[in-house]
Design goal:
38% helix; two-stranded antiparallel ribbon; Rossmann fold; 8 helices; four-stranded parallel sheet; 8 strands; single chain; binds zinc ion; alpha/beta
């Protein structure tokens, strides 16, 4: 057995031992009912109610495709927006808060599985087989300073999981956030648009030309962040942008 294989196995064992100790010291409890099982137990999971509808990214009108309505088509750079859950679902909200702000990274596995299931339903059947190789996955980036503060980009963790499942390339060296904007969560819908305007730029343009981009984030609120990302990617030659998020705020 090669040294690298031994090293990988040892590292997995160390991880298992680490999580075993953490589970004893800080048991994981269901965000719904408090049972010591998982971040969400099987019965609370059944009650989660994934979205049966999608929404126009511009005006929020319900539809099945996630595409902009005819009247909104010129107001959105997203070709479609796919959403797993509504953020008003308290258990989803708690899972996102635990994942994003309380270091519960393993919750990403749940989110990735839901995002993958959604892509199988709404996107994959609509892409011709010979066009599958033109899809790339890009996370909504954090500004470098915010990334250093938080230590990770939640959208990047989700994008890596999706890309790995579908064997799609994930591009982390293309879309950048150039302005350290005020957190969108603190602003009104109108102020969010101004705050985020032109905040993103593209490097390595050739990697997006003619590509269909699966643009990943955790939460979609006013849509200004995703729209600005989609605008920058389209300006660099991307052929289509499909936004996908765990929840709509
Ligand atoms: Zn439960
Ligand atoms: Zn609309």
């Amino acid at each position: 057995m090669s040294f690298m294989l031994w090293r990988q196995r040892l590292s997995k064992l160390v991880d298992k031992a680490k999580f075993f100790c953490l589970d004893i010291l800080f048991p994981i409890t269901c965000v719904g009912c408090g049972q010591e099982t998982d971040w969400i137990c099987q019965s609370c999971r059944v009650d989660l109610c994934p979205n049966l509808f999608q929404y126009c990214p511009a005006c929020g009108a319900r539809n099945l495709s996630g595409e902009a309505c005819i009247a909104c088509a010129t107001n959105s750079f997203l070709d479609a927006l796919f959403i797993c859950f509504d953020y008003s679902n308290q258990n989803i909200k708690k899972l996102i808060i635990n994942f994003k702000y309380k270091g519960a990274f393993e919750i990403k596995r749940l989110f990735i599985d839901w995002l993958i299931d959604l892509l199988y339903t709404v996107l994959i059947p609509n892409i011709e087989i010979d066009k599958m190789g033109d899809i790339i996955v890009i996370p909504v980036p954090l500004h470098r300073r915010r990334f250093i503060q938080r230590g990770f980009n939640q959208a990047e963790l989700l994008a890596l999981g999706i890309a790995s499942h579908f064997s799609m390339p994930v591009k982390l060296n293309v879309l950048y956030r150039g302005i350290n904007t005020i957190s969108q969560a603190e602003l009104s819908i109108e102020d969010r648009k101004t705050n985020i305007q032109n905040a993103f730029f593209i490097k390595n343009h050739s990697q997006v030309v003619g590509k269909m981009v699966v643009l990943v984030d955790d939460v979609f609120t006013s849509g200004s962040t995703m729209e600005e990302c989609a605008k920058a990617l389209k300006a660099s030659g991307a052929s289509a942008i499909y936004g996908i998020v765990v929840a709509k705020g």
